[in-house]
Amino acid sequence: MVVSVAATGPGTDAEPVSSTFFASRYVRDPLPRYRMPGRSIPREAAYQIINDELMLDGNPRLNLASFVTTWMEPECDKLIMGSINKNYVDMDEYPVTTELQNRCVNMIAHLFNAPIKEDETAVGVGTVGSSEAIMLAGLAFKRKWQNRRKEQGKPCDKPNIVTGANVQVCWEKFARYFEVELKEVKLSEGYYVMDPVKAVEMVDENTICVAAILGSTLTGEFEDVKLLNDLLTEKNKETGWDVPIHVDAASGGFIAPFLYPELEWDFRLPLVKSINVSGHKYGLVYAGVGWVIWRSKEDLPEELIFHINYLGTDQPTFTLNFSKGSSQIIAQYYQLIRLGFEGYKNIMENCMENAAILREGVAATGQFEILSKETGVPLVAFSLKDSSRFTVFDISENLRRFGWIVPAYTMPADAEHVAVLRVVIREDFSRSLSERLVNDILKILRELDACATHAVRVSSATAAQSDDGVVSKKSVLEIERDVVAHWMNAVNKKKTGPC
């Protein structure tokens, strides 16, 4: 949901209107923006109006902030369009789609080394993304913990989850929406993932699970799930508790099995009870699909599963959404059988090679410190060695002039003073794009350096006299703020009508 405010021009009560179409042969009257128009318009005009506005959006291929897939093969695009009118929840009407979902669940479960016998099927479900998958996994942990506490005759009103401060915001949403305390292991400069030792120290009898991240959003680094499992196993033995682990593999779940098969992070570790992964990230599907897999049926409480029959037959469902499209699930199945293990491995290796080229190019400028690791998600996170003349936020803003969308952000507690740029390498980010990005960064560095030098010269001739007669020079930042304030004041004074 986007919270928006309909604004009109100053000093007028006029209704905001949409006037994006130009010299239209179909429509002459402007359309209201925030109210449904009273009359119909031709389909060509509706298309033109919307298409014109969308031209001002960024180019998804140059959106290096996002992990989400922005390109698929034309054959898969056809499958998506051919199934866009199928409501996935109607399993009786679309049994083949349901079967494809079940195949995906089992393929991913085997990829994550779930202990499935020959005559068993995996326990999991498709979701609209890892956010919903995490909500479902968290609810399962909370209900399991509550049931166990009730059997023991102990209070069950203060559940908590232990995570690192680097978790994605969906964990904070789960904690707030479902009344679970989120206990975060704070970060430190140079160590931007959860410390397993500190995490286990924070575990208590009210901990429903410890959440480990396989592919931190901040730096792409994999957390040490194996060490966490070993330390937590010892603590469970000492205390008699049964605290499990959930692995948030939203980004890394479709990377680690292909690039680091020897890395133990999945169901090979006994305390890992559930894993989520985003099909629309390195699962290589357009936005709108995620997966959550449980170790066994015992790890998903039966009372959370609803059984409905008003769509035809008895249908079990465990989801926060009811109706949803089938397209992305079909697209996931296409990718799994189209690429196979070999295909995914080749793509991930290519992504890592392109990330290495970009890392070398950024490091060669001499102005950045690389914070991301070579092992992990294929991304490059880097910070300025010297932020006294300009910041990563200046670089991020200037990159938009060239079409690039590169996020700049500060690290969570206790590393807020570290500001970072991050470039995510997806399948459609080529080596030539990597080289072009480095060249554009070099251009911006030269421009910002020149501007900073000019500002220093101006500041050397600019002084402010205090009440006691002491003369002090203004800093570059103070001068920049004065200039911005001047132009903002000029803009605010300008009277314009509604746009």
Summarize the model shown:
Its EC number is 4.1.1.15. The chain is α/β, with parallel strands linked by helices.
Number of E strands: 17
Q: Which residues form runs of ≥5 with pLDDT under 50?
A: 494-499
Order of helices and strands: EEHHHEHEHEHEHEHEEEEHEEHEEHEEH
Give the CA-CA distance, first to last residue: 24 Å
**% residues in beta strands:** 5-15%
Largest sheet: 7 strands, mixed
Secondary structure tally, helices = 12
Radius of gyration: 27 Å
Side-by-side strand order of the widest sheet: 3-9-8-7-6-4-5
Overall shape: it is globular
Walkthrough of the structure:
This protein is α/β, with parallel strands linked by helices and 499 residues long. The protein has twelve helices and 17 strands. β7, α8 and β8 form a beta-alpha-beta unit. The protein is globular, with a radius of gyration of 27 Å.
What labels describe this entry?
decarboxylase; PyrdxlP-dep_Trfase; pyridoxal phosphate; Glutamate_decarboxylase; 7-stranded mixed beta sheet; 4-stranded antiparallel beta sheet; 12 helices; 499 residues; disordered C terminus; EC 4.1.1.15
